[in-house]
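Inputs:
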Amino acid sequence: MDDQIVRVISRIIIPFIQVYGIFVVMHGHLSPGGGFPGGAILGASIILYTLAFGAEAGAKMIPHRTSKWLESGAILLYIAIGLVGIGVGRTFLTNRAAGFPMGELGNVISAGFIPFITIAIGIKVASTMITLFHTMIGKDPH
Amino acid sequence: MQILNLILVVFLILCAIAAGRTKDLVSAVVIFASYSLVMAVLWLMLQSPDVAMTEAAIGAGVTTIMFVAVISRTSRIEK
């Protein structure tokens, strides 16, 4: 797509979308939202970039190799954080029963390891969206 | 509030029927996006803001783009 208006508007609006997505991910344990909606918003911003500037520019910004590594690494991080619960003698993903604190309203750094789990889910969902879209509009390997 | 809820639900049902009966697939995708938007407002009225946020991001945003990408690889008119 070769449209000047779409390019200028996208260049202005993409940072705001990304900041909003990061906000939703980071406040996942306190406010509505969390890893999945925030990751979807972050992925949608990269999809908008690909739509406005073309498939080559999108593939240059987030190469397939990077998104592949992010996707696998985020889910491994999720599993590693979940295993902390087993490490302290409770079940998988235990937070409160294992002695970690619950979330406090208005305090971002609270709630034990729940924020790290939310961040891992956010990275996973965002890179999945990007990989899916880039695979779908890319050249056929056959 | 009751009247607004009724209007939204009727619009939702009309959108669902129209998306299934349209032959032009791009029109069906646009109707489906409006369905998702109305559904997001309804989730908000049902006091479920996180589901509304997900519906607005996934249903109205990403799914529409995915459907358009698939239609651009295949044919536009339903056979």
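The CA atoms of residues 13 and 45 of chain A lie 9 Å apart. Flag for discussion at group meeting.
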